[in-house]
User: Fold this.
Amino acid sequence: MKLLEDRIRKDGVVKPGNIVKIDKFLNHQIDVKFLDELGAEFYRLFKDSGVTKLMTIEASGIAIACLAALHFDVPVIFAKKNKTKNIADEVYKTRVFSYTHGVFYDVIVSKEFLRKGDKVLLIDDVLANGKALLGLVDLCDQAGAEVVGAGIVMEKTFQPGRQIMEEKGIRVESLARISHIDDGKITFVGE
Amino acid sequence: MKLLEDRIRKDGVVKPGNIVKIDKFLNHQIDVKFLDELGAEFYRLFKDSGVTKLMTIEASGIAIACLAALHFDVPVIFAKKNKTKNIADEVYKTRVFSYTHGVFYDVIVSKEFLRKGDKVLLIDDVLANGKALLGLVDLCDQAGAEVVGAGIVMEKTFQPGRQIMEEKGIRVESLARISHIDDGKITFVGE
Assistant:
């Protein structure tokens, strides 16, 4: 998606370790009108998949999932990273490694909101190693819900996330695909 | 807002300690079309305040802030609860006590996104003790940004949050105001 590639090139900040910060429009400050355009594109890609729910993980996936959900007209559920006393005991749980924070954490979703018969589109901001998405797939498997695909804002194709998802038979659509980063310069697939 | 009071009465779950879970449409599963209506109401209330940014705190404020921001046509910024290596050093920081989790945590916002001259509308899902909002006010004070008000989805009027905000001269608008909870039954102000 040219619009997004241009925005990442303009506003993305490359950090050591091939990290691309998109804090200016998605991960800290949020440009909601722009995310609405990305949401429309996810809808174009997945509108024939019978999606009944969008699912993401707190916190940085929530904004894009909500803006996309307006187009699909289905609810969002976001998996939570910690068990709080506000969450019922009736949850599915999985364990995810965060490369960002360097720790494992438990991820939960209430059994009330994820059920057999649901056709779930996973939404996330970044696909790199795929650990967060794998956790969401595991939660859907536990619930007997079907994962119809994964909609990603920014993919780093030089990391194994897509391959891991595709080996599980999951369709992955990324709106911007970074093929490599050299000396702070971002190159997208096809350039 | 009658629509919201009805929804809280229908879908809210009262837990020990006067906790009202609104996980079914806001805090875990998100009804985006409904939140869009709440966002329109925030816009009606604050449209003459010259708002340049909506500000909330991760994670449960992000959804309602994004849906409201579509009406204001301004960016959202969400304060983050932990310093990660993806965040620049240039941040404002404050400390907030969470009654939900029973711990203090640091809350940060990048200096890049909150500046002198900003007119900030704070948005949050619940106002009870007001600790999270106070933290956001402190971040705005550090930045020299002006807080034009606080838009709250659900207020518990029997806890001190509103009073604390109003003593700081901050206008608080809550779309549903719970006056008391008895035996699991919710009563709103004016009933």
